[in-house]
Amino acid sequence: MKAFYSFLAVIVLILVAIIGGSIANLHFFFGIIIPYVAFVLFVGGFIYRIIKWGRSPVPYRIPTTCGQQKSLPWIKQAKIENPTSALGVIVRMASEVLLFRSLFRNTKTELREGENGPQLAYGSAKWLWLGSLAFHWSFLIIVIRHLRFFLEPIPVALQMVDSVDSMLQIGLPQIYITDLLFLAAITFLFLRRVCVPRIKYISLPADYFPLLLIFGIAVSGILMRYFDKVDLISVKELALGIATLHPVLPSDIGAIFYVHLFLICCLFVYFPTSKLMHMGGIFMSPTRNMISNNRMVRHINPWNHAVEVHSYAEYEDEFREKMKKAGIPVEKE
Predict the structure, then answer these.
(1) Nearest-CA neighbor of 142 among 208, 214, 43?
(2) Which residue segments constitute the domains of the chain, with CATH numbers given?
(3) What is the DSSP code (8-state) at residue 109?
(4) How does pLDDT run across 121-141, given as a tens digit for each residue?
(5) Pick from 59, 99, 169, 286: CA 20 to 30 A from residue 258's CA?
């Protein structure tokens, strides 16, 4: 039911876009007003979350590591897992952001029948790492490719990315490799939540909704490119107008375009309040962005203000007679 509610929400958004973009003829509202509002909410929400995280006090070094800390000279240090320099932190963060290094070590657990009954067994689980890597990198390349609609002339670097992505030269228009990888990856991530009982049990509508929303964006984009084709010149005219703050609304772009654009705007609005904010949160995580030098530098708690203390000697001077009467031994008679 959790997945069904999320699916129903995405269907409602699609119907709203179809009604507004074709039936109600609200092209100006869906083509210009909503994109601007979504962009402002996305940027404002993103900055707010980053500032809020940045203001969280972190008095101690609390890196989460799985390697040997720097200690004695004859003990080998894990310089990437447990860095004591800024360069080590940069390498660890880059490997985490670009290659999902910690997810690569992900393991699965299951009960297997042994000689003495059920036994807990551990195994490698690289499919999640591979699916996540394909999803994120494909998504990034697709976003980069779409920048050609907002730039004129198109930079050479974007043309190179487009050429490499479509190098298979299958059919006309050319099929992009990232389109296929993206659909396969998002389908795998969704089926994993639906078909694996343990993952399904802990999944919430907030886990299904972004997957289905992104899937809707991908499908509508593929429909526009390969089936219900739209006028790319009109699309670029609208995109350039929005980017330069001089929006011009072309006519007859097509209802599928407004569905695609509206779903993207919904993703922009939803992004800062969802788990998708891990895109910015990974850089603010003190468990990953801190140098592990607790054995090298003494860290003083900034909240450890001077307080009035009551020593035992003062306590005994105050209550000595009462302690004697109660039979409690005292240091001074």
Answers:
(1) 214
(2) 2-302 (1.20.950.20)
(3) E
(4) 777 778 888 989 999 999 999
(5) 169
**254 pLDDT exceeds 80?**
no
Question: Letter for the amino acid at 272?
Answer: P
Length of the chain: 333
Reduced to 3 states, what is the DSSP secondary structure of residue 56? coil
- Please tell me the distance from the alpha carbon of residue 285 to that of residue 278, in angstroms, as a whole number: 10
| 3-state SS assignment for residue 122 | strand
Banded model confidence at residue 251, pLDDT cuts 50, 70, 90? confident
Nearest CA among 174, 99, 177 for reference residue 136 = 99
Q: Which residue has the higher pLDDT, 59 or 100?
A: 100
Among 185, 261, 253, 251, smallest CA distance to 220 is for 261
- SS3 state of residue 62: coil
Given a cut of 80, whether residue 182 has pLDDT beyond it is yes
**Letter for the amino acid at 145?**
R
What confidence category does residue 23 fall into, taking pLDDT thresholds of 50, 70 and 90?
Answer: low
From 212, 208, 138, select the one nearest 179 (Cα to Cα).
Answer: 138
The number of C-alpha atoms within 13 Å of 4 and in the hemisphere containing its C-beta is 1
Task: Give the pLDDT confidence score for residue 228 in this predicted structure.
Answer: 76
- Give the whole-angstrom CA distance, residue 98 versus residue 101: 8
Model confidence, pTM: 0.81
What is the amino acid identity at position 271?
A: F
**Burial (CB count within 10 angstroms: exposed 0-12, middle 13-18, buried 19+), residue 137:** middle
d(Cα 147, Cα 134) in Å, to the nearest integer? 20
Answer whether the bond into residue 173 is a cis peptide, omega within 30°.
yes
Whose CA is closest to 242, among 15, 40, 18? 40
Residue type, 241: G
271: pLDDT strictly greater than 70: yes
The answer to whether the Cα torsion of 232, 238, 241, 243 is positive or negative is negative
Residue 67: exposure state from Cβ atoms within 10 A (0-12, 13-18, ≥19): middle
